[in-house]
Amino acid sequence: MASSLTCAGMVWAFLSFLCAAASCVGFFMPYWLLGSQLEKSVSFGTFRRCSYPVRDESRQTTVMVEQCGRYASFQAIPSAEWRICTVVTGLGCGLLLLVALTALMGCCVSELISRTVGRVAGGIQFLGG
């Protein structure tokens, strides 16, 4: 298979893919903030949470739900800042994956990535990061 990338381009493609994968895994994991509440370990990220308090109306107490899950809706994310973070981080991960997969295809297909495309892809990576 012919490649449109130099050796430095192949290293860039491989590292781009690793960074994009790490960013996406970090985005989907609910372990951004760790702590404890009601003597239980809790954690949450931008749109996922683990071990969260729920009001039990029948007993008039607060109980801990010890499972991980997403928020029921976008509006259920606790604050506007976290909603903005969810959108911006999701878009960044999408851009990073787009560039990384294009760069990996450039390792296998000749004439796919030119100098101009490489520069634009680097700019997109900068924005995605």
Automatic annotation (TrEMBL):
It comes from the Eukaryota. Its main location: membrane. It is a multi-pass membrane protein. Keywords: Membrane, Signal, Transmembrane, Transmembrane helix. The keyword Heme does not apply. Pfam families: L_HMGIC_fpl. The keyword Signal applies. Coiled coil: none annotated. It is found in: Membrane. The chain crosses the membrane at residues 12-34, 84-105. Residues 1-21 form the signal peptide. GO terms for cellular component: membrane. This is LHPL6 protein. It comes from Crotophaga sulcirostris. The gene is Lhfpl6.
